[in-house]
Structure formats: C-alpha cells, structure tokens
Amino acid sequence: MFTELIFTETGLTVIVGAGPTGLTLARQLGRYGLPYRIVDRSPKLFDGSRAKGLQPRTLEILDDLGLISRFLAAGGAYPPLRAHLPGGGTHEFRLDELHDPVPSVPYPNLLMIPQWRTSELLADGIAVELGTGLTGLTRIDGGMRVTLDTGETVDARYVVGADGGGSTVRKLLGIGFEGETHEEERMLVADVRLTGLDRDHWHVWPGPERTFRLGLCPLPGTDWFQLTAPASPLSPAGLVAAVDPSITVTEVGWTSEYRANVRMASRFRDGDVFLAGDAAHVHSPAGGQGLNTGIQDAYNLGWKLATGSSTILDTYEEERLPVAAAVLGISTRLHRRHADGEEDAMRRDDPVLRQLSLNYRGTTLAAEHRPQPGAVRAGDRAPDAPLTNSRVFDLLRGRTPPCWLSAGPESCRSFRFRSVM
Predict the structure, then answer these.
(1) From CA 46, how far away is CA 253, in angstroms rounded?
(2) Residue 62 covered by a domain
(3) For 406-420, how does the pLDDT look when each residue is reduced to its tens digit (9 = 90+)?
(4) Per the domain annotation, does 38 fall within a domain?
C-alpha cells in the first residue's frame, strides 16, 4: 500500500542569510523548481576559515546535492596533531583514526575544508543578494510581507531565518534564545600565512597544567593556517613568536574573537517563518557540530517547504529541535573538557560525532509497521549499498525517486510512504 505525497508550487520563499545553511536551503528549493530569494546584509560571502570540518553525514548530503566531488577535491583529511611540549620534544597523535570506506558508509572521515570554501562551493550558481538586509516582517493573508533595508517590500509564502546567532528574524518574532554565554572563556581565531612550519601536521603548543596555548592548523587547498589561542593582548604574530621565534607570520587575514556561547531557540517555527542553523542554535566549535547541523536543518526543511503542507512543515521542528538539543549537549561537553584541561580533551573518536546515528525514530513521519524491525528502522539514515547498476544513494537521489521511509525522505521530491512487512 502506498500513499503518494506530491510536491506543489508553494510560492516565493525568502531566505535571510547566505551562510552554509541558507545556501543549502537555496539549493534544495532550486532542485524542486521552487522560487526563492536569498539575501544577506553583508556585502560579501563570509571569508574566514571558522568552521572547517564537514562530518560524514554532511558529506552524504553533499553527495545527494551533486557536489561531493568538488568538496573532496577542495578539502582534505585532518592531519595528525603534533604537540610541542613545554619541556621540549613533541608528541604526535590523531583526533580520530582514519576509517576505511565501506559499502554502507562511503565517506567515513571528517573532511577539513575552510568555511569560506564551503560557502563558495555552495553559492556557485546561486543568485545571492549581498548587501541586502531584512528590517521588518508582517503577516499577510497567505504568507509574510518582508521589508528589506533597500526600502523594497516583498510578499513571500515563507521566510527562513538563517541569519546567524544574532538573527534579526528571530528577534523580530520575539522567539527566546535560551542558554548561556561565558564571557570569560574567549578564543582568538585567525587565518595566517607564515614561514618556518611544516604543513603535514596540526601544530599545538600546550601551556602549563594541560592548558591550551596556541594551535596552527594548515588549511588544505590553500597556503593559510588557522590560528587558535586564548584571547590575548598579543597580535597573532606576537602569539606565534612567543612559542617559537623561528616561525614568522607574513600575513594575517580574517580574525575573530570567539566567546563560549551555548543557546537554542525555544521554537523553530512561527507560522510561515522558520529558523535554521545558528539562528536556531549556537554551539561551541568543539567537535565540529554546528555548521553541519545547520546544513542538515536546511536539507530537512527544503523538501518540506516544497510540499506546501502545514502538517508536514510541523515535522521540521519535531525532528530537528531534539537533534539540535542533543548535538548542543555533545559540543558543550567537549568544550568543558577543553576548559577543564582534561588530558584527552582533543580526542574526537566518539562515533556519534560523525552524525550518522542521528535519527527521527518515533516522529510523525517515521511510522514503523514491522512487528520485528531490523537494525535499520523507520526514521534512520539509509545506509548506502551497491546495486546491480548503481547504489542505494543513487536510487534516493534527485527529484522523484521512490523512497523507503527508513531512508528519511529529505532527498525526494515525490515520495511514497511504504509499509515494510
């Protein structure tokens, strides 16, 4: 027995924010042939390395979007860490061991790629309206009226706030952003060019009593390093010179001071307006979860907007809010291990970090009808597997493939709920 769900023309969606979350949503809407406008207050796409790790689950989404080969070519595996010990000597280790691909998991490892490159690849072919911000939202019959800082008003069926932790959309809606900010826990992050250091390792300099003093990570496909250090009155060049005078910083690019900020919106939907990515949840960068969760928000929301069904759209918050809360807990625990100076605080070998085990079991769309379910249940990620002339991921790809409910329907334009007995 099949129940067919047909995607319909639902009118214009205005996406506010052209980071990885907003750009992924634009690609999702574009693949379903739906009209959208994507605006960003900034005059240019983000140009820093900031969130530099893409998890295996995100790589599978990029595969579905037809972008995986470009990302793999632009990025690289995380290098081993080389700790330069205070008493002299070095110690080498990995955040996680490299895993071999298997049929069910074709992309088993974290991919390092600077955030600016992620945005660049996602934005290719997307008409982003840069230098255009949102100033007002008004409810109208059949949608929302959006006021832009150019003076233009736009009538939209839906609005999606993907405009970061300081989201204008969220503030205009009056949605609470619960959590805490640790003002005393600040980190400097900067992109630097330098001489006198090999690019085969992620170099770290511990401080006394297992504290962190400095990190320099080579960014693949570039001649830049990402510098991280506790906030200091010293410049990036001064911080590097203080740990090793033989290393010379020749250029400093994007620079930011990070505050430990852990917050989540009290709801992800308000009528015809939705929140995604950092507008809905902000994380510690520990564990590389935040950007990945935002991309997955957009991937989930895109096909649901295409249905035009309020009932289906209600499942966006039902599915994604618990996931965001769980991921927030993971990244916060990892952050605390860093802050408390735990010996193995740098380890990233917990399989949950790869996000392949995230699921929607027990939610509205994940109806499990089998009396004795197997290892893969309704609401789970569908494992890849070879087929006679293709693979499972290819079967699920595109606009109108048949979808097993256990696969999660995010990749489908027209899909069937199938009872599996």
Answers:
(1) 12
(2) yes
(3) 333 343 333 333 322
(4) yes
Average per-residue pLDDT for the chain = 87
CA distances to 206, 229, 238, 246, 373 from 242, in Å = 13, 12, 6, 10, 59
In 3D space, the residue among 383, 379, 374, 284 whose CA is nearest the CA of residue 323 turns out to be 379
Contact status, residue 119 vs residue 20, Cβ threshold 8 Å = yes
The Cβ of residue 87 has, within 10 Å, a number of other Cβ atoms equal to 4
pLDDT of residue 9: 54
pLDDT on residue 130? 98
CATH number for 139: 3.50.50.60
173 CB neighbour count, 10 Å cutoff: 19
- Residue 389, amino acid: N
**Nearest one of 256, 266, 263 to 166, comparing CA atoms:** 263
Locate 224 and state its tokens: 């830049």
Confidence at residue 261, expressed as pLDDT on a 0 to 100 scale = 82
Distance (Å, rounded) from C-alpha 264 to C-alpha 112? 26
| 60 backbone dihedrals φ, ψ, rounded to 5° | -65, -35
Per the structure, how many domains does the chain have?
1
Q: Model-level pTM?
A: 0.90
The token pair that represents 21 in the structure block: 């979350």
Q: How far apart are CA 257 and CA 239, in angstroms?
A: 14
Residue range(s) defining the domain that contains residue 35: 2-180+261-354
Provide the residue type at 352 as one letter. Answer: V
Which residue type, as a one-letter code, is found at position 92? E
- Please determine, for residue 405, whether its predicted confidence score (pLDDT) is greater than 70: no
- Grade residue 243 by pLDDT with cuts at 50, 70 and 90: very high
Buried b (16+ CB within 10 A) or exposed e, 347-365: ebeeeebbbbebbbeeeeb
Rounded CA separation 170/177 (Å): 8
User: For residue 128, what are its two tokens?
Assistant: 């982003």
Q: What is the pLDDT of residues 248-283, one digit of tens each?
A: 999 999 999 988 788 899 999 999 999 999 999 997
Query: Does 256 map to a domain?
Result: no
The CB density around residue 162, as the number of other CB atoms within 10 Å, is: 31
194 within a domain of the structure (yes/no): no
